[in-house]
Each structure stands twice: as structure tokens, then as C-alpha cells.
Amino acid sequence: MDPESVDVTAGLEGFLAFFLLAMALYLLMRNMNARMRRMAYREEQEAKPAVGDDPDPEGQDPEGQDPEGQDPSGQPGGPDLG
After folding, report:
1. The domain containing residue 31 runs over which residues?
2. Is residue 53 assigned to a domain?
3. Is residue 20 assigned to a domain?
4. CB-CB contact of 71 with 64 (8 Å)
5. CA geometry: angle 23, 24, 28, nearest 5 deg
């Protein structure tokens, strides 16, 4: 056998495989960033009420008392729990 120096390279197939993997990675990252932006935008929109929306249309807080401290029955101090 005649020992010759042989250079082994990936060639065109190796370059194409690497290029396709790089393109797939780029497209996946771009898609992920778009989805993350969309998700953040939706969370922001859900967090703030729309213009003109009153979170309490009857003027009462969630415990059933109005802002002056009376329950809907008109008794001061809230509902009788005892």
C-alpha cells in the first residue's frame, strides 16, 4: 500500500445538512418569539379592564357591601355573622 495523505471532508452533503439544520433552527426560534410576544400581549390585555368596563356595576364590593360600609339590606356594619 502506498501511504498517501488523504483529506476527508464533509463535502456538499455535509454543508447542505448543516445549512438545513441552521434554517430549521432559525424558523423555530422566529416562531417561538412570535408566540411568546402574542402570549404576553394576551396576558396584558386580560390584566387590564377594557375602557368603559366597570368591574362592579352595582357599586358593591365582592363581599356584598357597598362602598359606604353597608350591606345591600341597608344595615350598617355589614351582614350579621353571629
Report:
1. 11-48
2. no
3. yes
4. yes
5. 120
* CA geometry: angle 67, 76, 60, nearest 5 deg: 25
pLDDT given at position 62: 56
In tens digits, the chain (82 residues) has pLDDT values of 556 788 888 899 999 999 999 999 999 999 999 999 999 999 999 988 766 665 555 655 555 555 555 555 655 555 555 5
- What is the number of domains present in the chain? 1
- d(Cα 30, Cα 19) in Å, to the nearest integer? 17
Is-contact 55 48, C-beta < 8 A? no
* Beta bridge partner(s), residue 70: 76
With CA atoms as reference, report the closest residue to 60 among 48, 50, 68, 52. Answer: 68
Residue type present at position 13: E
